[in-house]
Amino acid sequence: MDRRRFLLTSLAGALAAPPAPDAQQATKVARIGWLGVDPSGIHLQAAFVEGLRDLGYVEGRNLVLERRYTGATLERAPALAADLAALKLDVVVAASTPNALAAKDATRSIPIVFAAASDPVASGLVASLARPGGNVTGLSFLSPELVGKHLERLKEAVPGARRVAVLWQPGERPKGEMLRGGDIAARALGLRLHLVEVRRPDDFDRAFSDVTRARANALALVTSAMFFVERRRLVDLTAKHRLPTVWPWREAVDAGGFMSYAPHLPDLFRRAATYVDKILKGARPGELPVEQPTKFELVVNLKTAQALGLTIPPSLLARADEVIE
């Protein structure tokens, strides 16, 4: 009788005791905010979610993902970032530089991970790449450095080009910072740059009229969230104006653009999941170094080149990671 009472008492105590740490970890639900740009980038969100799944986080089981989309322009970002901050999330993931800045303004306590910031230090997101400080870290897109690389690819693909128009959106980065790499490369290549400022999608037609008046032989774009969302419209405009264009993302070439040289965006977004995992496990964002791209792609659309009357040098095609025919 005493033995039976002892066993029952022990079982009751075991049921009443708190679960072991491993069991608590298994049932803990991660609450993550997604401050995206537009559902047109759903493949980037899918890459991020796939990265989380590889690390054991599955929506409906141990993950809640609160999604918000700011759209092509920058006006809605502050309000949506404040909305996410009010939800007391574990982490906020920002899909662009303006969204990351809006999230940083909205909260100094919730960790923020940016998936593809064009220049995290110059934009004020982090103090340095090695030691970001504060509550923000993530992955860099290397945008300023790529302007010069884009001009080199354009000159190789269009040897007769002398004047290149550059579309850029103020508000994402300072003009001087954007020009540094481009000016050096342009002088070395014998090119003259014609800068065209675009603030809203309503400016596109005016911008391309400006490019035509400037007698530009080719076009480059400085990456921006607005340009990415509106890439199909921009591709159509470059075809209409017969402008060989180098793009800062391969997604535009998939849509019919001429050529791109850029980091592989899905790879950056998948890697952002590793930052989230480390933060959920106790790491401080300010102590996680900002990572820079490790995978770049040169993609050429031969069908578009033929429509433009261009013959791509074999040396350039040989270096291309993908040729779309």
Structure report:
With 325 residues, the chain is an alpha/beta fold. It has two domains: 28-141 and 265-287, Response regulator (Rossmann fold, 3-Layer(aba) Sandwich), CATH 3.40.50; 143-264 and 296-324, Rossmann fold (3-Layer(aba) Sandwich), CATH 3.40.50. It contains 14 helices and twelve strands. Strand 6 (163-168), helix 7 and strand 7 form a beta-alpha-beta unit. The radius of gyration is 24 Å and the shape is elongated. It starts with a helix and ends with a strand.
Average pLDDT score: 89
Oligomer: single chain
* CATH fold field value of the largest domain: Rossmann fold
- The number of strands is 12
| Main β sheet profile | 7 strands, mixed
- Taken together, the total number of domains comes to 2
Helix content: 40-55%
Read across the widest sheet, the strand sequence of neighbours is 7-6-8-9-10-11-12
Low-confidence segments: 1-26
Shape: elongated
By secondary-structure content and strand pairing, the structural class works out as: alpha/beta
Spell out the CATH superfamily of the largest domain: Response regulator
Q: Calculate the terminal CA-CA distance, rounded to whole Å.
A: 84 Å
Give the CATH architecture of the largest domain: 3-Layer(aba) Sandwich
- Radius of gyration (Å): 24 Å
H/I helix tally: 14
Order of helices and strands: HHEHEHEHEEHEHEHEHHEHEHEHHE
